[in-house]
From TrEMBL, chain A:
Compositionally biased tracts (Basic and acidic residues): 41-52
Listed GO CC annotations: centrosome; cilium; cytosol; lysosomal membrane; nucleus; spindle
The name this protein goes by in its record: Folliculin
Record's compositionally biased regions (Pro residues): 27-38
Organism per entry: Cyprinus carpio
UniProtKB/TrEMBL annotation, chain B:
Main location: cytoplasm
Family to which this protein belongs: Belongs to the FNIP family.
Region (Disordered): 138-158, 456-482
Comp. bias regions, Polar residues: 456-475
Name recorded for this polypeptide: Folliculin interacting protein 2
Domain of life according to the entry: Eukaryota
Originating species: Cyprinus carpio carpio
Matching InterPro entries: DENN_FNIP1/2, FNIP_C_dom, FNIP_fam, FNIP_mid_dom, FNIP_N_dom
Amino acid sequence: MNALVALCHFCELHGPRTLFCTEAVHPPSPSPPQPGPAIPGDRDREADREGEGLTMRANSSATQGADMCEGCRSLPASHPGFVSVDGETGIRYLSHQHPRQPQLFSVVRQACVRSLSCEVCPGREGPIFFGDEQHGFVFSHTFFIKDSLARGFQRWYSIVVVAMDRIYLINSWPFLLRHLRLTIQSLQNTALKVFDSEQCVCPQRAVRMNSAFSPAVFPHQRSGNAARSLTSLTQHPNLWASLHSSFSWLLKACGSRLTEKLLEGAPTEDTLVLIERQTEQEEEMSGWDGAEGGVSNPQPSQSESVQAKDFQFDDGRQEDILGPKFKSLRHLRQVLGASDFRQLAWHVLMGNQVIWRGADPGLIQSAFNVLKALLPVGCVRAVPYSPHYEEAYRCNFLGLSPDVPIPAHVSSSGPTLLNKMEVALSNENLSVEVVSLCLLCLKEEWMNKVKVLFKFSKVDGRGKEDTQKVLALLGATGPGEEDNVRLLKFWMTGLSKLYKSHLMTAVRVGERTLSQ
Amino acid sequence: VKHIRMISEGSRDTEDGSNDIRLIVYQDCERRGRQVLFDSKAIHKLDTSEPYTRPAPDVTMLGEMMFGSVSMSYKGSTLKIHHIRSPPQLMVSKVFSTRFGSSTSESTNTLQDSFESMSQTFPSHTSSIGCNDSVFPAHSNPVDMPSRGHSEDGDSGIARSASLSSLLATPLPSPGSSFSSGLSSSYQRRLLRSQATSLQHGPVPRWNTEEMFSLSDESCSSNPVMIQRKKIAISIIISLPEREEENHNFQEFFFSHFPLFESHMNKLKTAIERAMIVCRRIAESSQRVQVYLCRVMEALGEFRMTVWNLYMAPRISEPVWLSMISQSTERNLLCQRFLKEMSLLMEHGAKSQFLSALLTAVLTHHLAWVSTVMPSSMPPIKSACQKPASQTADLLAKSHPYNPLWAQLGDLYGALGSPVRVCRTVVVGRRRELVQRVLYVLSYFIRCSDLQEHVQPQEQMDNPASPCTSQTTDPTPEKPDPLKPTACVIGTSEKALNSDLGNAIPGTSVEQSHEILLTDTKSTSPSPSVESTAVRSEFTEMAQECFGEDSDSVGGGLEHILASQSPLLHRVQFHIGSPSETANDGQAGGLTGAGCGRGLDRKLHQRLLSDIRRNESSDSALGDSDDEETSAQELYVATEQNEYELPLPRQVQTNVNHFGRSLLGGYCPQYMPDFALHGISSDLRLKQCLMADLEHTVLHPALDEPVAEALCIVADTDRLSVQVVTSQKRVCEGGRLGRDVMVSNLVHTLITSVLQLYALNIASDFCVMHLEDRLQEVYFKSRSLAEYLRGQTRVPVKELGLALGIESSDIPLLAAVASTHSPYVAQILL
């Protein structure tokens, strides 16, 4: 939690003092924190000093040592303090007598004084929340600790939790109260045992009744023990280490008390297919490593080299290609001319094999790079540049050098999607980024239709009549219907395995529950 | 007088005359001391000539608690919460500095004088009288709280901070970065919240710090004069149920819903301000007091009713979205019921496109759905239909803690766009079943994160909160080597942690102390958390029972229900006031008796105060602090070598009563201002209150951040109309509340095709997946729109249609969605 915890004490000699403070130091933010507004404040401070300046100066002449006694101290000055590290988040919990972050020093001091000198708690032991935007917000719990040598046989302490997030701190009231009570009861009970044993040995009431009473020197009379440390009151040599653990745990537990389950959208089919391909490739690679004992990397077979090329066939590679290249779909369209481009795009969308012949492999690859944006990732199977012809079932994008012969069997209107794509491409007012986002929209829209058609025809196996209804509700009927259906069927081949298998299992589970 | 009686009946005076919730207005004046300006407990018999009786005997003590034993010179407002043990009460106080118009200074004195003139019935009751036996004078000099970066500008009100320009300047990362990183605005909001409330920057005055108590009827621009030494405290005292379990339930509710309580308290404060201003104009003194009391009682009645409703109103027992994400096993059944209800609704309002209009409005304004359709880059862990949980958000919560309850409230109100708008939806209709169907369907589209609570082990021995138990360790090495780097991972070395405790505490038997501690816990600790969470859901069920469909009492309205002695009333009734004065006096006596800690003389106190100030002015004033300025960053790195490292104790989950469960209301007897969604039978009270509520929301948002506009979607199932009411436009044609909603074609085709698939007997689970896919399309379209608008100043709507194929009916929806990931969109399309 974005807060700190401090143990404070009302010293009979020195008033309210901060004894022990545990703060959380966070690792650097994911993005640079906003610098808060400038904090001048000097003018205000000057104004606040007026009238009470004399008192202040008189007091500041007192040495530090004189302002401290055993009761005001937790760790000796030489003690380096304690730290606990949350390995998962990198948050460090630090404990010292005073906070190490200078901006928190006065905040804690303020909280300490208010909790023990200003705020009124009925019964003097219990929880209070107080604070304002300027000084931060404080959950304070005051309590007594038994001390056989103290006036009234007890000393007054408080534990304060300081935070800037008012609402969070108030929301946490029941939690903080529950757990601080445990901390306090544990301290009180331990001290009570010490108190009882001390009273057995030397009943203080009798001692005090018999000694002469002198109000002026009363607190100093027993100066040897006048202000005993909490360690002495509890006879707990590792008290501060334990308190550090308790306070650190409290900060962590309060911050993680409530957890949010925040959902994101399902990944797109493109993302899924890419992940699947990557996994397949990794599996195959590790298969090789296993077989060969990881010693040598044999020459990959041809099918793998195709696949490997498939992977290189990706964004960012284009910069590496020297010579002329296509920069965008629009560029390609400008070069080819509108009607040729449309022809080309039509075949791409329909899943027909596109063979690009040329002497410059870089140029061909750049053309494929821009064209593949028209299709779902799962529909793209490319061999950017091959020394011989590859069959259409192996690839729908094929680059060939001019001298490679094409088998005879290969040599042989548009869908709604194409028309919409053309509108975006032909509009010179749209930037390349906008066009690619428009393409994304169109592709996702049609991919969602593909999913429905897949579910309907392949999974549920519905008849022709029903299928026609679905096509109508998907907006795939009407002019270009035949092409639309062709496109949808081709795109079905691009669905991720995960998606397809999920739908299949869902049906099987459904059948099983029905038959039972 | 008549008026007061009517309200007090409405607010259900209990048999002994005390009320559930008590209001005290207190003044702390430098010259005149402390004075009670209002105490609802002291208002006795309203039909007599003496409306005001003697103040309750506990007011002096309460005054001390409100103002503190030493008054502060801080000029902003201060918030305090006290827990009073006997009788069990919670007291929430806000202390304000006063502000007067230049022409009307010292205006409360008029009222005060009026009270004093009625000395028989209302004796002046200053704390200095009541505190004679106190060792500590109530009026020592104020503690000077140093102002850090605090502007003295008196007229910096809410108006300025909520202005649109400041909202648009919200430090969001540049649109470019959010575009490429694909981070949702819900993530951004959470990150920014964590940073804004970080301790690492120290106190940074925020947007609403300078709230004052205004005693001027002139506008703030009239150069107000501040009287620094006069403060007014407004306290609400809620009597807690005597039974431990009820007490626990109410407190859990109160503290988790505090922002809502506070917002209503602010409303009450505004009403009190107005009452004081208005009554000043009345010359005749007894009449002046009457008017004042009347107005304040009216406001208090309102407050009591709102709080009561907030706690008691029926809730949607199974909100679709939250149930789907929390119980994946029930998913198929949930999908079936959801689609069935939605298709029934679609048929019902087919002609008027009621459902399409309503969903257009809801998707445009309750924007939390957007981040739930933004495509994840992570593969799903379980099955393709399950949306992945956001891992970035999860990591953020761990490393940069923010308040999940706050985040959830923002989600429900749809505060994810830019500028920040908050929205509620009210469904009006006489046909209960129909309204409930609408509510049920909407509970799928009005989304928020699900919250879970991690419960700690309750036994003291195992609880890491106790320092003197088995958690205790002695990790301090005998010869500490501070330079030795340590790399301890939390939780992995728990056993190593519990090192030889027995040896660590010489002379005492560990076992023995454990026994003592353990028995103590049993006798005093509150009921275990696990049990308490069960109790909460039980309460919900009880509420359902009380207000549920089969309850005959519902028709009679709230008052009727309250009058009937349902079992629920016994469970949650919280009596107000202190029925046993003796107990209270005992407390006060105990205080002075044990007041040794406070028994310091004034001189010492003065010294302490100057100590504080000295420490403020120079950070090195106390010996143990480092002299050099260490930045948090340096500190983070520096700690590797110095401190003794101790491992963190481990944390040992349940559903918690959160806003997602509490602010999705059912068919309620009366309009309520807090609910993200609820249904009512008549819009009578809605029409009376809505505009004022929306304005109040903008001025005092429960969200604790500036809000540019508050909206309310009002769906009328009788007339099949959907209107959006805004805090910005007051006048509407023909006396109508708001403007009609234009149906988005995208939304209409979306619902139509989902329901057609459902009609074709496609598995409902698949239909819901398709619905999510279609919502994702809306998100992608908003991305195109945002990209198109980037860098532009103004774009004609027609152009959007031509360029992007976006229909004009879809533009408000797409622009709102776009503003969640690309804040600049709002400026262009404004």
